[in-house]
Write a structure and sequence with these properties.
single chain; about 190 residues; alpha+beta; OB fold (Dihydrolipoamide Acetyltransferase, E2P); five-stranded mixed beta barrel; 3 helices; about 20% strand
Length: about 190
């Protein structure tokens, strides 16, 4: 067995072993999975941690690249035309890159579909009707109740002009500033 074939097999075996170890750690020790999301409140805003994605530089993807490099390199080194590592190594790197990119794309697609949220898309609430769950005193804050996508949400609210609106009144959301919803009578 040639030295380059041995190196490819070591990459293949080492990458695969690393994938198995990472999978076991993730399964048994919940490695690195901590809730850093917005907590499910419509008024919480966006903090960038709710994205559906896999980093291309995560240990799992790096291990998949290494495994792919070893597998492609070994297979390519077995063909007479590609026996030289000068030819097989760049081709193996391209194959491993395509392999890792396919895995990243597949995982991102799965996460996008399986981790979709029922949380309200706050920006789309503007223009919708709501009911005051807690009346708004003059120049004060009350609470609106609105339904979006079949889910009931509440949010702090003020009137646009500072006037009072009683509990139970119908209102329209006119704008959102930070966590404050501004409303006007319907």
């Amino acid at each position: 067995m040639s030295l380059d074939a041995l190196i490819y097999l070591l990459c293949l075996g080492g990458g695969f072993l690393f994938l198995i170890i990472l999978a076991a750690m993730g399964h048994f020790f919940d490695a690195g999975h901590h809730d850093v999301g917005s907590g499910g409140h419509a008024e919480a805003g966006a903090d960038g941690s709710d994205g559906h994605g896999v980093s291309a530089f995560s240990p799992m993807i790096i291990a998949a690249f290494m495994t792919g490099f070893g597998a492609f390199g070994y297979l390519l080194s077995q063909i007479n035309v590609n026996k030289s590592p000068v030819i097989s190594a760049p081709l193996a790197a391209v194959g491993a890159f395509i392999f890792a990119t396919a895995i990243v794309s597949a995982l991102r697609s799965i996460f996008r579909k399986t981790q979709s949220s029922s949380e309200s898309q706050v920006a789309s609430v503007v223009g919708t009707s709501a009911t005051l769950g807690t009346g708004i005193p003059e120049h004060g804050v009350g609470e609106i109740v609105y339904v979006q996508g079949g889910t009931r949400y509440t949010a702090p609210a003020r009137t646009e002009d500072g006037t009072a609106i009683p509990t139970g009144a119908a209102v329209i959301v006119t704008r959102i500033v930070g966590t404050q919803f501004f409303v006007k009578p319907a």
